[in-house]
Amino acid sequence: MAELKDYNSPILPTWCPGCGDFAIWSALKQALVAEGFGPKDICLCFDIGCNGNMADKINAYAFKGLHGRVIPTASGIHLANKGLPVIAIAGDGGTFDEGMQHFVHAIRSNYNVTFIVHNNCDFGLTTGQATPTTWEGQKMNSAPHGVVEKRLNPIKLALSLGADFVARGFTGNLQQLVKLLQAGIRHNGFSYVDILQHCPTYNHFQDHIWLSERVYDIETKPDYKNDRDYAYSISEISEDGVATGILFQNEASTSYLDKLSYRSAYQTSLKDEVKNYEINESLKMFR
Ligand SMILES: Cc1ncc(C[n+]2csc(CCOP(=O)(O)OP(=O)(O)O)c2C)c(N)n1
To answer: Does ligand 1 have an atom closer than 6 angstroms to the CB of 67?
Structure first.
């Protein structure tokens, strides 16, 4: 039986005091333990950034790759190891700037990967530049006169691409966050968990207090229904409220590997089918 202390690392966090990354770090460990996974039962894939600095603060099988490329890394690991739960973790900058195309295709493909976005509305590690989720007009280190680009709504994007699991959490609600991560891990297909988080150093517009005063659990709405169009309609982050919870889930979701019907009779994973080829003879023609 896995315990929280199994995930302890001797390396202590270097995040700013009050950073939402602490809550996500804690929620992730709690969710994994609640699902009965020990550190060697899963693979955590980390992107670059303050979020990715979690990689050595948690003792588990893990892979840290290039900025914006965590989805292809995680997808590859998943495709080769069908039975291995894979969790990919990234920032909003890495996801919606550098790596946007991967987000689009992972949703289309429906790889069975849990994808967690630390959405602090800025490039944190490189000191507060604007990302696509920064508010339009907001002054940032990369936009001293204010951001001129329109703000991206990642929830709408995911829903319109056909995502079968879209959730939004908040680092001020740890209990809910643990539940969302558990549900995402259990979902059969690509599960997107967008986490609105406090960045005490660079995000002074959508901070902990601003969010605390506006977040509500979607299921408490009288007209709530688990429906893609409904989720779309309540997905804006606005002065009037910020919906959190599982915004939409298709419980009948079929993941990429499960759709490969020709593989259904195979007992093996792709990693078992890798063959070694002798290529020295062929290479001779290039000498
Ligand atoms: C391809 C590439 N582009 C840019 C960088 C520089 N870089 C390193 S961390 C970082 C900011 C990360 O921001 P985000 O992904 O939002 O994560 P956060 O630090 O906010 O958690 C950038 C731009 C990089 N390492 N690689």
So the answer is: yes
Here the tokens at position 11 are 């390396």
CA 15 to ligand 1 centroid distance, Å: 15
CATH code for position 12: 3.40.50.970
Query: Residue 136 in 3-state DSSP?
Result: coil
Is there an atom of ligand 1 within 6 Å of 49 CB?
A: yes
Cα(185) to centroid(ligand 1), Å: 25
User: Is the shortest distance between the CB of 134 and ligand 1 below 6 Å?
Assistant: no
Domain count of the chain? 1
Grouped pLDDT means (10 residues each) for the chain, 287 residues = 96 97 98 98 98 97 97 97 96 98 98 98 98 98 97 98 98 98 98 97 97 98 98 97 98 96 89 90 91
Residue 132: domain span? 4-286
Closest to 43 in 3D by CA, of 88, 97, 76: 88
